[in-house]
Specification:
Layout: H1 8-23, H2 27-43, H3 50-53, E1 61-63, E2 68-75, E3 91-97, E4 104-106, E5 111-119, H4 131-134, E6 137-146, E7 149-159, E8 166-168, E9 175-176, E10 181-185, E11 189-195, E12 200-201, E13 208-209, E14 215-218
Antiparallel strand pairs: 1-14, 2-3, 2-13, 3-11, 4-10, 5-6, 5-9, 6-7, 7-11, 8-10, 12-14
Helix pairs in contact: 1-2
Length: 230
């Protein structure tokens, strides 16, 4: 199993006392600290998923950007949707990541990255609705033209009480594929995906999601022969 490079400093910090305990010949302490080191390293595990073996070519599919439990699926919560839409006409799917979940993040939809906006903030529990507007976060906007029609998806990396750093490895102007790795969040967090109202959601609250594999929703199929709409 692959381990993300971001694990190196954390593994090194966890391994140092383990080595000291081993040198001091304290087997029980060495074992306990060794298990802690292994746990810290495994937090950064980066398993391959379906898009890594077979790229998603369906332009209508939106997939989960993270592993975890879906804590909201439906109309965007009040005051939580992207600021660019004052009318609030978005659908929202929110996924809560526990410490045991894989924390590698993936793009829920492919296209051109329009903007990547980091917003400093607090570190409230990520499962609370207030965290979406008060916590530190990064908003990513992706656009894609399908049969002459522009589609826009917004997704948000959101830190929680334990997660204190967001890693975003894409920038405006990049082209990303559906399900492609785009970064990670360290030690418990949440991801929000905002979709236009005409997208059909295929998940509900309480369901577990798998990054790059669980289908969150689908855009209506567009006939390539249709005339573009304004």
């Amino acid at each position: 199993m692959k381990i993300d490079p971001a694990a190196k400093p954390f593994t090194a910090m966890a391994a140092a006392p383990t080595l000291l305990a081993a040198v001091a010949r304290r087997p029980r302490t060495t074992l306990a600290l060794g298990l802690l080191t292994a746990g810290v390293t495994l937090f950064f595990r980066d398993p391959d998923r379906t898009p890594d073996r077979s790229p998603i070519i369906d332009p209508d599919v939106v997939v989960a950007p993270a592993d975890g439990v879906i804590v909201h699926a439906g109309p965007a919560q009040e005051g939580v949707g992207p600021e660019e839409d004052s009318a609030g006409e978005w659908q929202q799917v929110s996924i809560f990541l526990s410490l045991l979940d894989v924390h590698i993040n993936r793009s829920p939809y492919g296209g051109r990255v329009v903007s990547v906006t980091h917003v400093p903030g607090r570190f409230l529990a990520a499962y609370r609705a207030a965290s979406a507007t008060k916590n530190e976060r990064t908003d990513i906007v992706v656009e894609r033209v399908v049969a002459g029609q522009s589609r826009r998806v917004v997704y948000r990396q959101l830190v929680g009480q334990l997660a204190r750093r967001i890693v975003t490895r894409i920038r405006p102007g990049d082209d990303v594929a559906t399900g492609e790795r785009i970064g990670l969040m360290k030690f418990g967090s949440r991801m929000d995906v905002f979709l236009p109202p005409h997208v059909t959601l295929e998940v509900s609250k309480g369901r577990r999601a798998v990054a790059g594999e669980t289908v969150l929703g689908r855009f209506p199929a567009v006939d390539a022969d249709e005339e573009p709409t304004a």
